[in-house]
Amino acid sequence: MSILVIAEHDNSSLKAETLKTVNAAQKIGGDITLLVAGYNCQNAVEAASKVNGVSKVLVCDNAAYEHQLAENVSLLVTELAADYEHILATALTTGKNFMPRVAALLDVAQISDIIDVESSDTFVRPIYAGNAIATVQSLDSKKVITVRTTGFDAVATDGNAEVVTLDIATDAGISSHVSDELTVSERPDLGAASVVISGGRGMQNGDNFKLLDGIADKLGAAIGASRAAVDAGFVPNDMQVGQTGKIVAPDLYIAVGISGAIQHLAGMKDSKVIVAINKDPEAPIFQVADYGIVTDLFDALPELESKL
Amino acid sequence: MKVLVPIKRVIDYNVKVRVKPDQSNVDLANTKMAINPFCEIAVEEAVRLKEAGTATEVIAISIGDKSCQEQLRTALALGADRAIQIETDENLDALNIAKLLKAVVEEEQPQLVILGKQSIDSDNNQTGQMLAALTGMPQGTFASVVKVEGEKVNVTREVDGGLQTVALNLPAIVTTDLRLNEPRYASLPNIMKAKRKPLAVKPATDFGLDLTARTKLLKVTPPAQRQAGIVVESIDELVEKLKNEAKVIS
Questions:
Q1: DSSP letter string over B159-198?
Q2: What is the pLDDT of residues B108-146, one digit of tens each?
Q3: Of B42, B79, B72, B67, the residue nearest B185 (C-alpha)
Q4: Contacts by B231-239, CB closer than 8 A, 24 or more apart
Q5: Burial of residue A157 (number of CB atoms within 10 Å: 0-12, 13-18, 19+)
Q6: Which of A87, A241, A306, B126 could form an SS bridge with A267, CB 3.0 to 4.6 Å?
Q7: Is the peptide bond between B189 and the residue preceding it cis, with omega within 30 degrees of 0?
Q8: pLDDT digits (tens, 9 = 90+) for A171-204
Q9: B100 shares contact with chain A (CB less than 8 Å)
Q10: Per-residue confidence band for B250, with pLDDT thresholds at 50, 70 and 90
Q11: Which positions in chain B touch A179 (Cβ < 8 Å)?
């Protein structure tokens, strides 16, 4: 069997999540090809060629793919699809955007957000915000799959795959990129951090999120937020952890002033160790926390920072 | 311009589902149902476009059995002009839903189709993108700002790193994210008025499409439960436990 994995990258680097998607491909079993579609993406290609378990890296370096526009990328993947039984992408915003388009163009269903592989046609995925786990069999000859990376370990990066450059440019000509407004941060990515500290409505305002900075610095943590905090405008949307935001599973997750709605728990309950800091002893977050402390976060945060 | 808004009837977002003892699916008997939250945002956005004079007609559509008429009436009460129910008892895959919607798009010729980015039951996040592929339209998924400007629509999208704005040729597909708007509550007079708005029912079988299921649900199980942990009395104790018991900090 042949598997095509579409690399998640920003042209200059390969996202760590791709290493986990390749692991999912290994569990399906077969010859794995990694596709890097981008523009001036030599550095991402270089990184892709070192991913273990990959036999070949296909490169499409063209302005049409610079911003991963779904209309253009989906045409490219569809054109390459004939050689593969499985097509995998990471279930991040880029993959979620173009993959269903690929599936529909190929006239097959998509299996979204898999967290485990049972066999080459049967996959496990969460539904209802992770409150139920479905085992789903694909009846299509070609399987289009997005992978939730919290379910898989990263493969190593000491490989040496053959790099093949393709001269294909699929520009649908119906969409264009206008601008990016990306959050610049020195901290690790939410999806890749081994420690995450998140604030909720209890933080009261955006300024108070600074109270998390010192702790995050000491722990090398990423900072997240609940939907309530994002909706209230305390912090930007890319910090949201939850059912429809980022799904994280770090070694340590510290929830500060977060009550623990179903939708938030869906994004973090697979974390190894969960700490809850909340002044409401009845908050549902305590039902999933390994360590809880019932206290005012404005007392707890400075003390925690000083004692780390 | 005409705006089409496909909506889905789902479990109310406050309700926690239970898995059936025979593991065949989740148990939705006697469960409170509602319009999918992202679909509600889609209806609101379409109604705002109409209020701003950009849209001329807002059509809500749902695919399901008779019970989804309840959610269509909700959409009408929120401001949609008319509704279409495509009747089926089958629980269709997103691809088949997209095929039915494509048929309606060809009939109605909307300039904009606004959908929720995902339904909170199946959590698939597929239908809008699939409809875009089948109709050959561009897509602005996970939208937090939608601006129609002449022959184009600019969509600001919530992406992993922050925000991205794309320009799409009309007609186009938009899927909503949480920050696009805050849906209004339907007023009582509008709920009453909605009862008299037109709601057309068309059997799915009338479309002559092959709607064979492409996936098979083998089983549904409850997730692994976390053991409830302990409540510590002080920050000192918390730091000690994290260092020596959980060993997640040094």
A1: ETTEEEEEEEESSEEEEE-TTS--PPPPPHHHHHHHTTS-
A2: 999 999 999 999 999 999 999 999 999 999 999 999 999
A3: B79
A4: B231/A281, B231/A286, B231/A291, B231/A292, B231/A293, B231/A294, B232/A291, B232/A292, B232/A293, B233/A293, B234/A293, B235/A293, B235/A300, B235/A303, B235/A304, B235/A307, B236/A307, B238/A275, B238/A291, B238/A293, B238/A304, B239/A304, B239/A307, B239/A308
A5: middle
A6: A241
A7: no
A8: 999 999 999 998 888 899 898 899 999 999 999 9
A9: no
A10: confident
A11: 164-165
CA angle A185, A188, A189 (to 5 degrees): 90
Chain A residues inside the 8 Å CB shell of B158? 93, 237-238
Q: Which pair of structure tokens corresponds to residue A265?
A: 């728990």
In A, minimum Cα distance to B141 occurs at A97
The gap between the terminal CA atoms of chain B, to the nearest Å, is 61
Count of helix runs (H) and strand runs (E) in chain A: 8, 16
- For the purposes of burial, counting CB atoms within 10 Å of the CB of A175, is it exposed (0-12), middle (13-18) or buried (19 or more)? buried
* B86-98: pLDDT as tens digits: 999 999 999 999 9
- Name residue, tokens 């709920």: B191
Residue B213 Cα, gap to closest chain A Cα (Å): 8
Contact yes or no for A219/B249 (Cβ under 8 A): yes
Task: With cut-offs at 50, 70 and 90, classify the pLDDT of residue B225.
Answer: confident
Residue from the list A69, A127, A251 with its beta carbon closest to the beta carbon of B123: A127
Percent of chain A at pLDDT exceeding 90: 95
Which of B159, B173, B181 to probe the A interface (max A CBs under 10 A)? Answer: B159
A224-248 confidence digits (pLDDT tens)? 999 999 999 999 999 999 988 999 9
Q: Which residue in chain B is spatially nearest to A111 when comparing CA positions?
A: B124
pTM of the prediction? 0.94
Enumerate residues 6+ apart whose C-beta is below 8 A from A251.
Answer: A194, A195, A271, A272, A273, B248
Quote the pLDDT of residue B228: 80
pLDDT band (50, 70, 90) for residue B226: confident
pLDDT tens digits along B13-54 = 989 899 999 999 999 999 999 999 999 999 999 999 999 999
C-alpha dihedral, A38 to A42 to A47 to A49, nearest 10°: 90
CA distance A54 to A159: 8
Tokens describing residue B45 = 């956005």
What is the Cα–Cα distance from A4 to B181, expressed in whole angstroms?
Answer: 38
Q: Which residues of chain A have pLDDT under 70?
A: none
Predicted pLDDT of residue A301: 97
Whether residue A138 and residue B215 make contact (CB cut-off 8 A), yes or no, is: yes
Chain A residues with beta carbon closer than 8 angstroms to that of B144:
237
